[in-house]
Amino acid sequence: MQLTKNINKKLLKEQIYPTYDIEKKLNCILHFGVGNFHRAHQALYIHELLENNKNISIIGVNLRSNETNLKLIKQDYLYTLVRISKDFKEIKILNPIKKILFGKKDKIEIRNLIASKDIKLITITVTEKGYHFDKDKKLNYSKDIINDLENKNLNTVIGHISFGLIQRFKLNKEKIIIMSCDNLSENSNILKNLIYEFLTKIYPECLKWFLSNVEFPLSMVDGIVPNNNKNSKFFNIPYEDNSIVVTEPYRDWYIQSDNVVLKKILNNKNIIFVNNINFYENIKLKILNGAHSSLAYIGILLGHTHVHEAMADKICFNFISQFLDLEVLPTFENKDNFDIKKYKNNVLRRFKNPYIEDKLIRIAMDGSLKIPIRLLDTYKKNKNKTPYIDAIITSWILFLQHMIVNNKSNLSDSNKEFIINTYENDKENFVLNLLNQKNLFNLNEYQKINLEKNIINNINQIKKVTFTNFLSNLVFK
Fold first, then answer.
1. In a domain, 171, yes or no
2. Other CB atoms within 10 Å distance of the CB of residue 227
3. Residues sharing a CB contact under 8 Å with residue 202, sequence separation 6 or more, in sequence order
4. Which of 36, 63, 67 is nearest to 359 (CA)?
5. Structural domain tally of the chain?
6. Helix (H, G, I), strand (E, B), or coil: what is residue 378?
7. Which of 223, 242, 275 represents a domain boundary (last residue)?
8. CA distance 168 to 210
């Protein structure tokens, strides 16, 4: 029995079926990046609002693949969300997404939606590399951006939104809210600047309207949602669902905005509006995301596959815990009586969840984008006394070397070509050449020399005593 709107609800067990008819709800939110995270996070908040008779819906856009759409069409855009840990289990059937468009095929419909008065909010989860920015957070004129500037079949969220805003300006000049929900410090400010730069190139006539009528609230989202391959039988679900999403019970959504329209749209008690989001944003980026990336490289080099397996390894657990205690937490000032130690302990507990089979290799990819965002500011604030961060960056470099030598085709990184060429052209100076790349490591000369020295020392030590013993000597000294 396939999950569709014709399913016999009497056969459902602990699964909760939605009470609303999404087809009768107004278009309101356009979301770019309908992956597992969006369906477990923002879509859940909207589902809860719909269950309370809110007249809204999500229309999704995917830029790189139409696979999710093809799966969900067969299920009338219904899907199962499993929130689970050792002491919590909840299974809900969600339907907040009305339809999903494909960026490479549906650019006119996407453009018309952005121009429509019905769409009040655009949200985005396309990961860091989806923004196409350079080291200065300016527009990176990649092949995709150049393609979009020529208004071909659009490849980027920047292109789609920019041309949609031009259409909105021409048709009605209505206000609109655009919010990045990605793991970037100052995420929506970065997005605003990139779109502004794009618009400057193609239609500067709308810039004054853009600055006065398009708001970009900052946001911070939190929740661990792996790519899972669990089928219905694993959770004793009495129907077939090819789009099950598995996530942890924990979730956060902080938004910095006083916009009355936005607060009305997202009037969910679990969404927290704050005056200044920087504190919460930095905590999440540097504690959770920083620890996640660190654990990925260390865990892989120790032979682990999943996050929870690595956390069961005493070396890994103690390394991550001490890294946070000694090098990350001291860089934060206390704010709003926030218990930062408790948050750190919750992060470690969440990483241990055996039901969230998050693969380390997934987290390890795109390190050249993630490491500068998640680790380098902490490195600088510690004034170069960072044996743990030194070890983490060493682990990333060893991971890159292993991937290039053994599995080059499966290395996924927006700087993949540069990284591979740098290694293959000059293996002896791979570390120095990486650190010299300002796009990756925006360090002053002293910081760069110090980091290079420590990484080279670490690599030489690992050659002598093995990676496991190297970490043990650091953690249990």
1. yes
2. 13
3. 149, 151, 162, 163, 166
4. 36
5. 2
6. helix
7. 275
8. 10
Task: Compute the chain's Rg from CA coordinates.
Answer: 23
What confidence score (pLDDT) does residue 8 get?
A: 92
Taking Cα atoms as reference points, which of 357, 244, 227, 353 lies closest to residue 15?
A: 244
Residue 382 included in any domain: yes
* Rounded Cα distance, 399 and 402, in Å: 5
Write out the two tokens for 467.
């990676």
The CA distance from 224 to 189, in Å, is 24
Structural domain for 224, as ranges: 9-275
- Residue 178 CA to residue 120 CA, distance in Å, equals 9
Rounded to two decimals, the pTM is 0.90
- In this prediction, residues 379-395 reach a mean pLDDT of 93
Query: In this structure, are residues 469 and 452 in contact, taking their beta carbons and an 8 Å threshold?
Result: no
Verify that 218 and 287 share a domain, yes or no. no
Question: 323 lies in a domain?
Answer: yes
User: Are residue 205 and residue 262 in the same domain, yes or no?
Assistant: yes
Instruction: Round to whole Å and give the CA distance between 277 and 332.
Output: 14
Specify the CATH number for the domain of residue 398. Answer: 1.10.1040.10
**Residue 170 banded pLDDT, cuts 50, 70, 90:** very high
Q: Euclidean distance between the first and final Cα of the chain, in Å?
A: 58
Distance CA 477, CA 467 (A): 15
The residues that bridge with 383 in the sheet, in sequence order, are none
Q: At residue 229, does pLDDT exceed 90?
A: no
Q: Output the six-digit token pair for 238.
A: 């009495």
Please spell the DSSP secondary structure of 179-208, one letter per residue. Answer: EE-SS-TTHHHHHHHHHHHHHHHH-GGGHH
Residue pLDDT, tens place only, 294-314: 999 999 999 999 999 999 999
Q: Does some domain include residue 283?
A: yes
53 and 145, same domain (yes or no): yes
Q: What is the CATH number of the domain that holds 142?
A: 3.40.50.720
Q: What is the pLDDT of residue 256?
A: 97
**Are residues 82 and 220 part of one domain?**
yes
How do 218-222 and 252-256 pair as beta strands?
antiparallel
